[in-house]
Design brief:
Elements: H1 4-26, E1 30-38, E2 43-50, H2 58-73, E3 79-84, H3 90-96
């Protein structure tokens, strides 16, 4: 069993990290939402919403992006359960997105 202080520290660090990762998803019309977290067992549940439901790489974003970063940066995270909110129709979801990746050239 963890202390109340440790619980608060872990949840605070998780909120902070989700806050740092969310803009990368938001730029394409989606969002990253924390559904639940158990700082004792290390199980974290997240959901991609908005344009993510029509995005072909949502599962890659969850597995290779969100899950990997949470486990690497928060040593107490043991499992990340991810899902994609599919409450929007494909057309509505696509209207939220900005399209594919467009590289920014620097001079």
């Amino acid at each position: 069993m963890i202390t109340a202080e440790t619980r608060e520290e872990r949840l605070g660090a998780l909120d902070e990290l989700i806050g740092l990762m969310a803009p990368s998803v938001q730029v394409d019309g989606g969002d990253l939402r924390l559904v639940s977290a158990d700082p004792e067992t290390g199980v974290v549940e997240v959901e991609l919403v908005g344009a993510c439901s029509s995005c072909a790489i949502s599962s890659v974003t969850l597995q290779e992006g969100v899950s990997r970063l949470l486990k690497e940066r928060l040593d107490w995270v043991t499992e990340v359960v991810g899902s994609v909110d599919e409450s929007l129709s494909e057309e509505e979801s696509m209207l939220l997105g900005r399209g594919g990746y467009v590289p920014q050239y620097r001079y």
